[in-house]
Amino acid sequence: MSQSGAATRPPISRPLSFTGAVAAALALTGLGAGAPAAAQQIPPGFNGQPNDMRIGPSTRYATPDSRVRFTFDRSGRTALLQFEGESEVHVLRSVGASGGGELYRDEADQIRLRITPNGGVTIYTRLHRNGEAAGAEGAAPRLAPAALEVAQYQRRMAQLSAIAAQRLGRPITITAPREARGAEAGLIIDAAERAIAGLERAPPGVARITIQRAAEAQALRRGDELAIGVNPAHGYAGRPSTHTISNALADGLLSENRRLD
Predict the structure, then answer these.
(1) Distance, CA of 142 to chain centre
(2) Domain-by-domain residue ranges, the chain?
(3) Burial 73-106, CB ≥16 within 10 A → b, else e
(4) Main-chain dihedrals φ then ψ at residue 56, nearest 5 degrees
């Protein structure tokens, strides 16, 4: 999906709140999932080498031991990375590497990828802290939020409220735009998922997640509320990452403790 255009925004009278009871009922209707992106065709003559310049802008890679597989997508305005088996898509920023090539850092400012001048790829993870060469396995679908219909969006948001209550062991109310469709709906859903993941890393205290459209990605704790700002026009870069949300929760708790001292 191109991240340069914003999805059409329907008029909204007021936000919609999802709580555990409503979520449990709606969850029985089934998960609303967007249509999968069409797989890109592997270019003729592709030989799987990392320096093969015929590889498309979104490519699937693997380390020699096959313990790490990931998709690296440079088709949009920002570089994106998603590891196989993980739901989060990381937004990367590029900096020049010594000796040429590029380094890609994630939201936590950790080096995730290095691209050599001839196109070779090195991946950095907990399993490969010193880096491990990764070979291209083939072209991959672009990383983009799922395109949802309004009903799918509402069902999934209700399910997430129930999921949050189950994971966190307390009721969680999620307030989000009443209607959203297309990639915008998918991004708002992803923002809610990031918020839940961030809350799992934080001490108890938040009872509400509020998601609103904003000029840029934002995360802020205000008492028992986690406020999230999203800008669907920016794609995944338009929502805060799990790391950003975790930091916002920690900063908010620290501010509250200082006021109590």
Answers:
(1) 13
(2) 16-35+145-260, 58-139
(3) bbbbebbbbbbeeeebbbbbeeeebeeebebbbb
(4) -75, 175
The pTM of the whole model exceeds 0.70: yes
Q: How confident is the model at residue 166 (pLDDT cuts 50, 70, 90)?
A: very high
Question: Residue 4's pLDDT is what?
Answer: 41
What token pair was written down for 38?
A: 């069409």
| Residue-wise DSSP of 165-201 | HHHHTS--EEEE-S---HHHHHHHHHHHHHHHHHHHT
Residue among 131, 195, 130 at smallest CA distance from 168: 195
- In the block, tokens 């999968």 appear at 36
Considering the domain 58-139 in this protein, what is its CATH number?
2.40.128
pLDDT in tens, 181-238: 999 999 999 999 999 999 998 888 899 999 999 999 999 999 999 999 999 999 999 9
Q: Is 139 exposed, middle or buried, given 0-12, 13-18 or 19+ CB atoms closer than 10 A? A: buried
Q: What percent helix, strand, coil does the chain show, rounded to 5?
A: 30, 25, 45
